[in-house]
Amino acid sequence: MEPVSTQKPLLFTPIELRGARPRNRVVISPMCTYSARDGVPDDWHLTHLAKFATGGAGTIFIEASAVEERGRITHGDVGIYDDAQVAGHKRIVDFLKAHGAAVAIQLAHGGRKASMQRPWFGNGPMGEDDVARGDTPWQPVGASPVPVDEGWLVPRELSAGEIQDVVAAWAAAARRAVQAGYDILEIHGAHGYLIQSFLSPIANKRTDAYGGDLNGRMRLALEVTEAVRPEWPDDRPLFFRVSSVDGIDGGWTLDETGTLATALKARGVDVIDCSSGGIAGSATAARGKRQPGFQVPFAERVRRDAGLMT
Length: 310
Hints:
- With 310 residues, the protein is α/β, with parallel strands linked by helices.
- It has one domain: TIM Barrel (Alpha-Beta Barrel).
- It contains eight helices and nine strands.
- The strands form two sheets. Strands 1, 2, 3, 4, 7, 8 and 9 form a seven-stranded parallel sheet that branches. A two-stranded parallel ribbon has the order 5-6.
- Strand 8 (238-243), helix 7 and strand 9 form a beta-alpha-beta unit.
- Helix 1 runs parallel beside helix 2 (86-98).
- The mean pLDDT is 95.
């Protein structure tokens, strides 16, 4: 009879990330629930997230939190673009920490995928029925005036000056995340939202310093990181979520992800969160073959090429 191993699986062991030490490596991803009012997380969000803390998860992400009001994906998105929203975040953070979890926030901007329906109303562009419910569309912005898909609002191209305002909004959101007591911060640069719309040649048709070659298309991602890192305490880890590939001919590639990851490492990013897809259509998933662990090769490649945790 083989002896029974008493060694604890790696998944259930602590991990050190700068000054954060989650009790295990189970991470609850940022899952949008489209249920906030005026961007404020409330009892619904506390109830939803509390079960993961009491269940023993090591790190819990609150859902994607918009850095600008126009950067919400839907009317129900959580935000951290206003000082009045901080108390709602802090209440949840304090509860999750009291039950042993490290608490993380994902800072996001919907870009050209903003101003869409809540999923249970169709997950598409808002229409007359949504307006009748009180969900009025707003003007999305993006790298270029290229809509997500047929029938979607055409985003207004951001000027260079407006881009700097957006970068400043990310920095301000990071300051609010500090006030709320978060342990980990992630910049959302994936799934076709604002940063990814600059990275991908599918959505970025600019001819200025924020478009064209890879250096131009990476500029926004790097400027956001450079603005956020000084606002985020040095003893707290910074994550960056990428769409490792667009999964569409002529789109963002894994080689480009490796180059971006190396540049992000030099700017103080500690972990690359490897996802994929989302540049076209409403879904965040890649349009390729999917099976258990299909993102794992992306994470392995980035970890090897950039020398970063993934």
